[in-house]
What does this fold into?
Amino acid sequence: MSLGDRLKIIRGEIQQDEFAKYFNIHKNTYARYERNEAKPNTEFIKQLCLKFNVDVEWLIFGDKTVKIRTPNNIDISMLEEAIVLVEISQANTPNPVKPEYKAKMIIDTYTYIKTKKNKKTYQDKKTGVIESLKIIDEVL
It folds into this structure.
């Protein structure tokens, strides 16, 4: 697998021109990276790895065992719970929020859950979180 192929994996469903804007480069420059006609500079690689949480060794060398870094301090079960809470808050909303707002809501909910000291406190606050998310929804 080439560097260009790995760039396509990271880009996913995002259009090339939109993806290029993330890095303040021309869409043709980015397209040449994906076609392996040009090599990205170190600043592009650094920004890409930081923005998309990609392991630089995987990106450059193609190590098959590593692609996305997951910080050790993320509790996956709490993140899943945050996603569920946001989904519940959005279920009865006539106008769904933009993905970037939804992502922010998930991050904020996860942070709230993670800061709780014990499970009982978290369970007691679950209803309050859902209501808070609905209020945030109305403001946005």
Observations:
- Residues 117-124 have pLDDT under 50 and may be disordered.
- Residues 86 and 102 are 8 Å apart (CA to CA).
- The helical segments are 3-11, 16-22, 27-34, 42-51, 56-61, 76-91, 99-115, 119-139.
- Residues 76-139 form one domain.
